[in-house]
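Data's thin. Show one?
=====
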Amino acid sequence: MKTEIKLAFATFFFSMCILSIFAAPGSAEDYEALKGVKSIKALFDFRDGKPQSALIHVKLVHQTYKDKAITKIGDNPDFVVVFMASSVKLLSKNRDSFSSEEKKHLDEMDKVISAMSKDGIKLEICMFAANLFGVASESVSPEINRVHNGWISSMGYQAKGYSLIPAY
């Protein structure tokens, strides 16, 4: 019994240590690159078409948006995610071609995307890619703005000073 209690305590202690490392976001002072920065404008060129890794990418975008190192800089950060290439397939409500495990990842991805939208992150889908991959416009959540060409949208944001961040 004592061994089980010690093991449980050790597991709890280890878990709390790991949680404190990952749960404590950094401050702007922790990043040399952020010193003197007055605002954050980021454009995520999202092309990851694999459900599991795409879920990780959208979670990371959302976590980055809420990170204290970013939120302490000026006004709210200005983030845009433009879904292009095969990633557009992940946004369709038609999921017949995905396995049950992939569907679980996509359901969770839907929740993260919805939370991102509610937090003010702009979301766009390239309809050129959507048409190429057979994704019907009406099968995509209304939270995601449709643009005819994701490259043109991307060029516009970059011309306005957005930092380009690839998510492949």
Summary: Residues 39-167 form a domain with the Hypothetical Protein Ychn; Chain: A, fold (CATH 3.40.1260.10). The longest helix spans residues 2-23. The mean pLDDT is 88.
